[in-house]
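My main concern about presentation is that the manuscript never shows what a single data entry looks like. The format is easy to grasp once an entry is in front of the reader. For illustration, here is how one protein appears when written out as sequence plus structure tokens:
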Amino acid sequence: MSNFLRMMYGRYGVDNLSKLLFCIYIIIFIIGLFIKNFYLDIIGLLLLFIVIFRFFSKNIYKRNKENQKYLKIKKKTLKPFKNLIRNFKERKENVYKKCHKCKTTLKLPLPYERGIKHAKCPTCKNKITFICLRKQKIEIITDNERMKK
């Protein structure tokens, strides 16, 4: 193992762009198992060559610059979905509703009971009514569990 580490010293290694290219290669490889196409095989081999080249490259500055460009593009493309991703991650604690008047997104705590709930927008004081289908899970801590902490 130390020989490999010694060889990899000063090399670029794996980054986000390499991971993406390798995932695309795997997808093309799996498609290529079912669809026999010469051009698909060439594209797959080209992608694999690029991943290996980036992995063993000694020009760290250039590879890092390429990765930063990729991360900028990724950030721009995912920006419209940022709220959806955040809402999905926090779906167990909060409910997100938009005010119809001022278009402000409200972050409301998940209620203890299901049903129709009301909230007031802090910017325009508009009353917002929403139906909550989920209820907050209440964790009951026994005395034994409290003693362990």
